[in-house]
Amino acid sequence: MQHGTMASYDQPYPRLFNLETCPSQRTLQVPKSTVATIIRKWKKFGTTKNLPRPGRPAKLSNQGRRALAREVSRNPRVTLTELQCILVEMGEPFRRSTIQAAFHQSGLYGRVARRKPLLSKRHITARLEFAKRHLEDSQTMRIKIIWFDETKIELFGLNTKCHVWRKPGTAHHLANTIPTVKHGGGSIMMWGCFLAAGMGRLVLIEGKMNAAKYTEILEENLLQSALDLRLWRRFTFQHDNDPKHTAKRTKEWLRRKSEHVLEWPSQSPDLNPIEHLWKELKMAVYRHSPSNLTELARICQEEWAKMSRNKCAKLVASFPRCLEAVIAAKGAATKY
Question: Is the pTM of this model over 0.85?
């Protein structure tokens, strides 16, 4: 190992030789860390010569790796091209495969960014306070919550991958493609609710969904859904902060009915277990390949009725884990 004047020190050192007894840094003209490394090597292997190493030495230096890690830490969306420019300025190898290999060794991989609701500081604070406030709620309280939401279901709107067996050059043959239409081929709006005891009603929303339509749906379906599941009037009403939910007309209707409403943090679909039911409903519906909106609405009702009570109970039981995830993320987005 060539370390300036240290090349002549390939001989046994005194037993007590250490940084205190070795020649000074100025005398050797090498960094103190280099001297310490050589001493440790001698104590462990009894030599200062280069030892056999498995594999080819890395092309990218430790300095280059640290520079890449810093850049990715500052900007996770930085591209490989931009990272190549950084390495060129440092005089480091800049092949894309070299950069990718360095990231993989550090446990970093390029992945598609998840889409999450935009959260302001106010939203994050509200989410964190909500999670802390309701984490200790009893299971008895949670099973009395009726979860509400609306969703849009498109006729040809499920964005899923489909694998086919085909020969090279036949990618665009009719049998090997998925037909698409503009705007999903039309869509319907559905309102639904559920609680731990089972599925509530699913309603097709006809016309424009506003506060008047919303209170009409609640008038006809809220109490009846609770009665169907033998909850009577001992329940808590949950809905998000959509403008039609927080409208003066809706609040007045809830006040007249003396409904207990669960306060809800904005931009928090990850906390509402009904979102999982919507996803499962859409996947089940699209397996039937409905051909028109009337058939789409009919299949939605059929598949909604097939949802099991056990699934509903599990979703409600998972609510504390969602709250714990929000607390762990300090109010930021979670995996749910």
Answer: no
